[in-house]
Amino acid sequence: MLNERNEPLLDPERLRMIEVASNPHRMRIMMELLNKEGTAASLSKTLGYSRQLVDHHLETLEKSGLVFKRKIGNVEVYSATESAKTIVSEILKMHSEIGRAEKGETAVKAEKHKAGLKPIRLIPMAVGASIVLVASAEAIRVGKYTYILGGILLGILLYFASSRLIRLLE
Fold first, then answer.
1. Are 123 and 130 in contact (CB under 8 A)?
2. Of the candidates 37, 88, 92, 138, which lies 20 to 30 Å from 123 by C-alpha distance?
3. How far apart are the C-alpha atoms of 67 and 59, rounded to whole Å?
4. Which DSSP string do the residues of 49-60 spell out, in sequence order?
């Protein structure tokens, strides 16, 4: 549904139900109740939750209209409402779409990574290595071998500086 400005109308009650249902424990409880009715004790055993936790979430779900409770003798039996079926379906659909989107994003990143070393990525290595070679040659020519150490340090510094610059430019 759209309002007069052609924007989607937001149903506050539906949004509240989605908010309540989005808790992972409540989602698991509702998904279990969509399969079959259950008691707090049976849900606790099936899901591996404490009885107190299940009681708390069932009360919250019931207040929100997502779970229906009826008494059979002295036992309270819970079942999912039609609203719960709709809300669970919507949340699972969103969850699935977000997962696909994230996988797509990861695939794009992986594809970029697989592209391998681009020629521009070799520039820092060439800069650093050339400085070390020039310093070594000069050290041998003049007989001052400490130039080699200075060349290595300067080569490393220029390698990191040019690497950072290239990452910023990409």
1. no
2. 138
3. 9
4. --HHHHHHHHHH
Q: Look up residue 140 and give its DSSP letter.
A: H
pLDDT, averaged in runs of 10, over the chain (170 residues): 67 84 92 95 95 96 95 95 90 83 62 57 77 82 82 82 76
Q: Supply the DSSP symbol for 120.
A: G
Q: Which of 66, 64, 59 is nearest to 87 (CA)?
A: 66
The one-letter amino acid at 109: K
**Torsion sign (Cα): 110, 111, 114, 118:** negative
Residue 61, both tokens: 């779900």
Where would I find the H helices in the chain?
Answer: 12-21, 24-35, 40-47, 51-63, 82-114, 123-142, 146-169
Please count the other Cβ atoms lying within 10 Å of the Cβ belonging to residue 148.
Answer: 16
Statement: the pTM of the whole predicted model exceeds 0.70 = no
93 CB burial (10 A radius; 0-12, 13-18, 19+): exposed
Rg (CA), the chain: 32
- Residue with tokens 């009360």, as numbered in its chain: 59
Pairwise CA distance, residues 20 & 61, whole Å: 7
